[in-house]
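--- STAGE predict ---
source: upstream dedup step, 1 unique chain passed
mode: sequence only
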Amino acid sequence: MNNILELRKISRKYFLNNKALSIFENINLSVKKKEKIALVGPSGCGKTSLLHIAGLLEAPSSGAVFVKGEEIKWNSDRILSNYRLNDIGFIFQFNNLLDDFNALENTALPYIISGNSKKIAFEKAELLLKQVGLEDRIKSFPNQLSGGEQQRVAIARSLINEPSIILADEPTGNLDLSSSMNVIEVFDRLVDEYDCSIILATHDLNIASLQDRVISIEELSN
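--- STAGE serialize ---
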């Protein structure tokens, strides 16, 4: 089975006061189609940095990233943007919804940015919001939604371009246990329905245990 995403010997270093600070070294990770991976580890271990590299938001200090077998070239913003729009969905801890856009508009936005018509974008967005149980909240703005409802909008938005993989960074970090489990159940069902892979970074082992594989950054380094 072909890998949707592959990281080969990925390292990330930052420089502070002219001193190199190594976040992680020689990370190797392969993600297959429809595979759900939980990435665990303590705060500061580099989970977010690794997701940013996997999501083509920042380049590694060394190593290579492959999306659907194609090695990523980091010198073309246009190519990187195209991958991010069409192959990679993002869900963040703080959901990054736009305050001035309602749930329908927030969900539709990535599809519109990809060059599709607003009419089709809103139709797809409405269907996705129904699938995450928000059919009665379509016209609600983020400040009118609970934290769990906001994350369900973020899930719908991440799926609208039908990506190959979703990267979720502590998607339930601000929710209570009941809301967290509800969000993850919706998430897992839709990931299966859309034949999508996922890397979910979490410190919650209860949530991690629901995925196909649980790995830590320490295990990935060699």
